[in-house]
Amino acid sequence: MKNQRWLAIFTAIVGVLLLGEGWFSVEGIRGLRELEVTPGTPFATAEDVAWAKSYLPAMYVVASEGLMLGVVAAIGAAGLFAGRRWARKLVLLASVVLVLLAVVAVVLAPRQWDTQAVFVGLCAILWWEARKWRKE
Questions:
Q1: Which of 42, 91, 92, 133 registers the highest number of CB atoms within 10 A of its CB?
Q2: How many Cβ atoms are within 10 Å of 11's Cβ, its own excluded?
Q3: Does the model's pTM come out above 0.90?
Q4: Cα 112 to Cα 130: distance, rounded to the nearest angstrom
């Protein structure tokens, strides 16, 4: 299979990025849960704290996206390196789920568009390559 190694490396890199995003989001969730009103900080009023905590649903989506799909990407990369037939299908299906979760995260928290756009772009690259492979 052409470019199998390239796809495996690409998938592994995306998996590392997703795991990093998931871990960072979990830490953010932990910090937001403990957030309290503190004078002299950006969270000096109860409204500021409530505004920050309103991002928790989006952070849960991003954390689950990163951790779950990061693990799936690692499994897919290992399968691609081993030459398994199911690995390409797994990676393509996971990329569709990733884009759907990215859209949900942006709808819940529009300021997430920049990090989520990176993952949508990476999925678009994967889909472009998959389209080329189909024609070969």
A1: 91
A2: 28
A3: no
A4: 27
